[in-house]
């Protein structure tokens, strides 16, 4: 599922009180919030690690300070809370496996035994079971959950979206049709991506068959969906009705692209040409200060070069579209620009955020700063921070090999990459970063 907006509530509280053995520095790398799925084993190991870092510190004192760090009066209260959470987590894990793998019989047994389990939040991003079933496209599971009282219009906490949004994005036609019949909202766009169900289908995803079903059900086009589906007549109608739609911006999770930038990102030359004809600002830039398109698309270079004045092309644009010859020319004008402290050292983080590994490698090979900071989703952080949240493990290893520092704190939550791992329940990855730190 989408991971956007998933760090809400992630914060660091004040450090633990000073004592004869001051372990506040050791605790500062931990989030003040317990991991999503805490365990007694994790807590006991963490307390023992604290005693190792402070010779002479008694285990009971370490346990007490760890409990205070997590907001509990004492170790016993913390353990009781976690043991209760573990029981819920066991139920949640069994339910998650049944829903994720589409095991209908197993789901029925679980819900017969514990009917209220349909309200548990499951999976890495704490979604309701119906959202996960819709995302995975298990229509039998979706039907069963709805039959037992799951709300088709319940919104999840991270994206504030309904089950049908996730089914639409993944192209699960049968699930979408069922949820429409059950009364799912299909026009509402008051979610974190500011898109209707149609927008999730054809803008966040590329599910034109689902898009046609939704249009037949009465969903109206936005400028984004009309561009995504290549509907020239609808684009003209929308711009004629309100010329300001040419300057509209997508959500922060789509980097505030304009319709023109969205067409470039999709490599849609016809739509890019049309929007220019209708008056689109070809100088507009997204929130990463880029004009260019998706480097994975064959049409990218052609579309970009046709609509950009290459004499004013900037290094960020060249790197975003993998125009490395042009990037080389621009970089030679100021070789320090990507180095630590350089004016554009943040471009490395942007490349990682866009999963543009060719560009990320080029930047590091040209002296780029692997520990540079950049702001995304309202949080200044390193590439390693963002990658441990949702990136592939092999790329985390690649960053570590290139010198990424897991002890750097982000600029909003004041948490290290290790703290991010622990908050998101990625205990194995947290241990790997700790080993690297040693």
Main sheet: strands, sense, barrel: 2 strands, antiparallel
The end-to-end span amounts to 33 Å
> pLDDT below 50 for ≥5 consecutive residues: which ranges?
1-21, 295-300
Radius of gyration: 24 Å
Number of strands: 2
Q: How much is the average pLDDT?
A: 85
Sketch the topology as an H/E string, one letter per element: HHHHHHHHHHHHHHHHHHHHEEHHHH
- Count of helical segments? 24
Oligomeric organization of the protein chains: single chain
Name the strands of the widest sheet in spatial order. Answer: 1-2
- Beta fraction: under 5%
Global shape: flat
The computed structural class is mainly alpha
Helix content: 40-55%
Account of the 3D structure:
The protein is built from 24 helices and two strands. Mean pLDDT is 85; it is low at 1-21 and 295-300. The chain has helices at 24-27, 40-53, 59-69, 75-100, 104-113, 129-136, 139-147, 163-170, 173-181, 197-204, 208-216, 223-228, 232-241, 259-265, 269-277, 300-307, 315-320, 324-332, 347-353, 357-365, 383-390, 393-401, 417-423, 427-437; strands at residues 373-376, 379-382. The chain has a two-stranded antiparallel sheet with strand order 1-2. The protein is mainly α. Helix 4 (75-100) runs antiparallel to helix 5 (104-113), helix 14 (259-265) packs antiparallel against helix 15 and helix 21 runs antiparallel to helix 22. The chain is flat, with a radius of gyration of 24 Å.
């Amino acid at each position: 599922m989408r991971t956007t907006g998933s760090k809400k509530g992630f914060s660091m509280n004040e450090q633990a009180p000073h004592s004869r053995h001051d372990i506040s520095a050791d605790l500062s790398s931990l989030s003040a919030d317990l991991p999503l799925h805490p365990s007694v084993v994790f807590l006991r190991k963490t307390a023992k690690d604290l005693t190792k870092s402070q010779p002479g510190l008694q285990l009971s004192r370490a346990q007490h300070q760890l409990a205070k760090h997590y907001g509990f009066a004492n170790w016993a209260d913390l353990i009781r809370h976690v043991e209760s959470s573990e029981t819920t987590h066991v139920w949640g894990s069994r339910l998650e496996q049944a829903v994720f793998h589409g095991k209908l019989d197993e789901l029925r047994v679980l819900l017969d035994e514990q009917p209220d389990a349909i309200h548990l939040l499951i999976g890495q991003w704490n979604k309701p079971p119906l959202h996960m079933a819709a995302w995975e496209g298990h229509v039998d599971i979706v039907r069963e959950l709805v039959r037992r009282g799951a709300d088709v219009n319940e919104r999840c906490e991270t994206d504030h979206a309904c089950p049908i949004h996730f089914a639409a994005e993944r192209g699960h036609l049968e699930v979408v049709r069922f949820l429409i019949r059950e009364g799912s909202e299909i026009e509402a766009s008051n979610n974190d991506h500011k898109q209707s169900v149609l927008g999730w289908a054809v803008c966040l995803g590329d599910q034109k068959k689902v898009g046609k079903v939704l249009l037949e059900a009465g969903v109206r086009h936005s400028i984004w969906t009309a561009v995504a589906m290549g509907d020239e007549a609808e684009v003209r109608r929308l711009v004629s009705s309100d010329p300001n739609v040419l300057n509209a911006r997508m959500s922060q999770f789509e980097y505030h692209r304009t319709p023109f930038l969205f067409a470039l990102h999709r490599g849609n030359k016809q739509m890019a040409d049309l929007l220019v004809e209708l008056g689109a600002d070809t100088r507009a830039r997204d929130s990463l200060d880029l004009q260019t398109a998706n480097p994975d698309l064959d049409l990218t270079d052609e579309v970009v070069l046709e609509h950009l004045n290459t004499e004013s092309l900037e290094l960020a644009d060249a790197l975003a579209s993998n125009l490395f010859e042009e990037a080389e020319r621009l970089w030679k004008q100021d070789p320090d620009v990507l180095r630590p402290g350089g004016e554009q050292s943040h471009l490395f983080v942007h490349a990682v955020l866009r999963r543009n590994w060719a560009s990320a490698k080029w930047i590091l090979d040209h002296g780029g700063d692997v520990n540079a900071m950049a702001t995304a989703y309202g949080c200044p952080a390193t590439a390693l921070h963002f990658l441990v949240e949702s990136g592939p493990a092999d790329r985390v290893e690649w960053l570590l090999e290139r010198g990424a520092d897991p002890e750097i704190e982000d600029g909003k939550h004041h948490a290290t990459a290790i703290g991010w791992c622990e908050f998101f329940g990625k205990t194995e990855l947290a241990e790997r970063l700790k080993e690297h730190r040693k």
